[in-house]
Amino acid sequence: AGSGWLGNLSCVVDYLSAADCVWRPEPGSQDGNFTLEMVKKKVHRSCELRREVEIPAFSCRLVLPRMRSFQEYQLHLRRYRGRNVTSCSVDNYRPAHHIRPLAPGSLSAAYNKSSQLQWRTDPYNGMILNKQLLFELCYWPKDKLLEKKFKEVTTHHMTIEGFELQLNTVYVASVRCKPNKVDPYRGQWSTWSTECEWSTETDTGAGSPTRG
Known about the structure:
Number of helices: 1
Subcellular location: Membrane
InterPro entries: FN3_sf, Hempt_rcpt_S_F1_CS, Ig-like_fold
Mean pLDDT: 83
GO molecular function: cytokine receptor activity
Number of domains: 2
Main location: membrane
Keywords: Membrane, Receptor, Signal, Transmembrane, Transmembrane helix
CATH class of the largest domain: Mainly Beta
CATH architecture of the largest domain: Sandwich
């Protein structure tokens, strides 16, 4: 966040090398061309902010080889109008506090009186971060989106007891993750994983991933 024409600027990182940034300017501050820079000593990366089509905002991706997530950077937002250049800055930006992990994968389910679901985390998140994630599983009867239920765990698997499910019903599930509020990592939920379908019929085998 910032003041003046800076408006609201947020950047979320994928832990290792990229920051996806969204800038929502104050009214009347959208004219001109804009760039965003992330700076620390010899590290200097920039990207051109491009106007979003569906929302009143600009966005770009900063690629930072060997990003040090625990260190602090400066963000510089620059506006170019003809020969006039103005800038606003955000100090003490720490990537470790703005992490959005990659979504879990390989979600599968099997039913035998209860439903056992399991998934994997993306190795790109890093070994340390993957041990400090909170997972949220969402599941619902197929074609009944209003009956969605949510459960949170810190493991890579979950059991849904039989009494929580309807018999002879096809279910759909998806899972997402975020840092588990354990220092030094903070952040937001990942996108949802690819969906998985399974049936609560006793003669049905393991569930399999479907297109999300």
